[in-house]
């Protein structure tokens, strides 16, 4: 709310307050008209709530005409049901509460409790003007219902002012200034709760007991908190959540960090993900994109070298080729028979047509079996087909002979669950909160199958199982990348593990959680949005990961160079073909010799029998 709006609304509030205080029911129409004029000058969608403990019916009936302008008149006799629509809806751009108190502690306390029950503490931007005796200032302003209110103004009156007549016209020029914006928190000490999840947040515990204070290590949230503290002039005390849990919901009650925010035990928490249930209990500010869960398995195994001869083409292509040879041979043989039947001449045998089609594929010079132009045309197109096929086979065969192929990698959960005798697990430190809810509540049969067979264990134990084979580790990409690059990658960038390029988005995004009604929430939310839009959080993510890998590799006496996958080939590697590369050719030669020998024996046996 800007200063001009605040002044106009304050003048409206003071007019009605003085009327309530002095009991000027005779001038109700004049007061009502003055309020209407002020409302039409500015901000027609601002909601004004006038709460008076001693109602003046004539004045209230006059103001009821302006309910469409957002004016709400409530008296001490109003029922609780009157507060259901007290604060307006999402279209309400501003709210002002005018609270007129009388000298009755019982009624005052019940009124303040009523305001708390109706959620005034959830509206930190609501302007609050209170009119009462000077002796009530401290007790009223320190009440819990105003604990999050940013702008609260108390007009303290002497008791004799309540009895003195007051001129309404005096308040046409009333001016009240607003408080300054929350650009300096004056060293306020925030209470922060956290759970470790690198690279977003990492720390060192001060003690071993649960819920101890921590010292932040270099991480994304650590950089954000320190940057915000320097800009906004605040301090903070950060503690680890005792059970290291983000929080699960049971009957509207949260555990873990979400529970501490729900109970208003802390001001905000570090890295967390939003869920529909959490957004009801806390305020949430997006900080950065979420990480995806990937599959870590052994690198694909090498395919047997003796099958390199058939690997250039898939099984479907080889099958299509065999069918094409047979069909073309039959077609040529049938056309020649038709030609001989109509025009005469010598016939050809089917085996001659078949051997010609096969010989052309093998680039062997065999006499053309066709005896007419129709046959020669068919042979010409077959030769073109053979040229294309053999050229493709030859070029692909060279690659498969020099570089041994490997089995397909495990890129998706669908492929993983289809493997025979395969098992999988996930990181126990991260399988909490929203991650559990994702697997438990998901309706996809593949996700359900993964959840049913999911084993929860530490990353070190899981990677050892992966190394033994028949096992996959499902974890967030940035988390597992740091571990693999730090501990399982040599100086040349080689690692025995394969981390899938595809993944599943378990979390919508990541950010910070704030207690409901926190007056500083919008300020932090804007800062987090600016950081992300400027690309700083993305840059920090890469930088934090790279620094941590260098630190870990230095600790384990490994190279501190960039640990991304290193391509050792420069495009000029020469590979000499050895016996293992050409073993398939020898097997083919041996098989062909055996078939030829058996054919010879069959022919000789046939001739001998005849």
UniProtKB/TrEMBL annotation:
Signal peptide region: 1-23
Entry's Gene Ontology cellular component terms: plasma membrane
Location(s) in or outside the cell: Cell membrane
Broad class of the protein's primary localization: membrane
Official protein name in the record: Ionotropic glutamate receptor C-terminal domain-containing protein
Membrane-protein topology: Multi-pass membrane protein
Superkingdom field: Eukaryota
Species of origin: Petrolisthes manimaculis
Lineage: Eukaryota, Metazoa, Ecdysozoa, Arthropoda, Crustacea
Assigned keywords, A-Z: Cell membrane, Glycoprotein, Membrane, Receptor, Signal, Transmembrane, Transmembrane helix
GO molecular function, one term: ligand-gated monoatomic ion channel activity
Residue ranges that the Swiss-Prot or TrEMBL entry lists as coiled coil: none
Family that this chain belongs to: Belongs to the glutamate-gated ion channel (TC 1.A.10.1) family.
């Amino acid at each position: 709310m800007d200063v001009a709006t605040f002044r106009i609304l304050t003048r409206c509030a003071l007019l009605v307050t003085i009327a309530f205080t002095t009991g000027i029911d005779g001038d109700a129409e004049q007061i009502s008209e003055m309020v209407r004029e002020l409302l039409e000058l500015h901000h027609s969608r601002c909601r004004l709530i006038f709460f008076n403990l001693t109602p003046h019916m004539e004045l209230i009936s006059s103001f009821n005409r302006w309910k469409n302008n957002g004016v709400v008149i409530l008296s001490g006799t109003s029922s609780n049901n009157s507060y259901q629509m007290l604060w307006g809806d999402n279209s309400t751009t501003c709210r002002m509460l005018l609270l007129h108190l009388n000298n009755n502690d019982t009624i005052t306390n019940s009124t303040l409790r009523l305001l708390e029950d109706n959620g005034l503490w959830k509206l930190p931007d609501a302007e609050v003007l209170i009119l009462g005796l000077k002796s009530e200032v401290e007790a009223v302003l320190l009440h819990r219902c105003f604990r999050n209110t940013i702008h609260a103004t108390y007009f303290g009156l002497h008791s004799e002012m309540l009895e003195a007549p007051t001129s309404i016209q005096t308040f046409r020029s009333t001016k009240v200034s607003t408080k300054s914006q929350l650009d300096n928190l004056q060293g306020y000490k925030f209470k922060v709760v956290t759970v470790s999840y690198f690279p977003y947040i990492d720390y060192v515990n001060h003690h071993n007991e649960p819920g101890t204070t921590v010292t932040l290590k270099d991480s994304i949230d650590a950089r954000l908190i320190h940057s915000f503290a320097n800009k906004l002039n605040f301090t903070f005390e950060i503690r680890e959540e005792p059970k290291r849990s983000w929080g699960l919901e049971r009957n509207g009650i949260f555990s873990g960090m979400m529970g501490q925010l729900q109970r208003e035990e802390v001001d905000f928490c570090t890295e967390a993900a939003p869920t529909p249930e959490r957004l009801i209990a806390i305020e949430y500010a997006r900080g950065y994109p979420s990480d995806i869960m990937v599959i870590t398995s052994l690198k694909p195994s090498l395919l047997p070298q003796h099958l390199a001869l058939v690997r250039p083409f898939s099984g479907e292509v080889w099958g299509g080729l065999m069918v094409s040879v047979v069909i073309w041979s039959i077609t040529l043989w049938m056309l020649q028979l038709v030609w001989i039947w109509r025009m005469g001449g010598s016939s050809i045998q089917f085996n001659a047509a078949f051997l010609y089609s096969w010989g052309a594929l093998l680039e062997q010079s065999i006499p053309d079996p066709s005896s007419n132009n129709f046959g020669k045309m068919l042979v010409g197109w077959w030769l073109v087909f053979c040229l294309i096929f053999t050229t493709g086979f030859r070029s692909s065969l060279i690659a498969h002979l020099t570089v041994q192929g490997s089995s397909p990698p495990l890129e998706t959960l669908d492929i993983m669950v289809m493997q025979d005798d395969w098992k999988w697990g996930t990181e126990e430190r991260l399988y909490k909160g929203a991650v559990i809810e994702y697997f438990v509540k998901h309706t996809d049969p593949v996700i359900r199958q993964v959840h049913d067979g999911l084993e929860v264990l530490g990353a070190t134990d899981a990677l050892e199982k992966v190394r033994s084979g028949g096992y996959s580790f499902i974890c967030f990409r940035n988390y597992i990348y740091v571990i693999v690059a730090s501990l399982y990658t040599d100086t040349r960038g080689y690692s025995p593990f394969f981390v899938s390029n595809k993944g599943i988005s378990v979390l919508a995004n990541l950010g910070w959680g704030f207690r409901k009604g926190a007056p500083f929430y919008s300020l932090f939310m804007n800062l987090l949005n600016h950081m992300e839009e400027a690309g700083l959080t993305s840059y920090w993510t890469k930088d934090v990961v790279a620094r941590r890998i260098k630190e870990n590799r230095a600790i384990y006496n490994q190279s501190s160079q960039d640990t991304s996958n290193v391509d050792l080939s420069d495009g000029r590697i020469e590979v000499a073909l050895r016996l293992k590369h050409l073993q398939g050719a020898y097997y083919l030669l041996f098989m062909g010799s055996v078939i030829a020998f058996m054919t010879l024996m069959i022919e000789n046996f046939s001739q001998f029998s005849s």
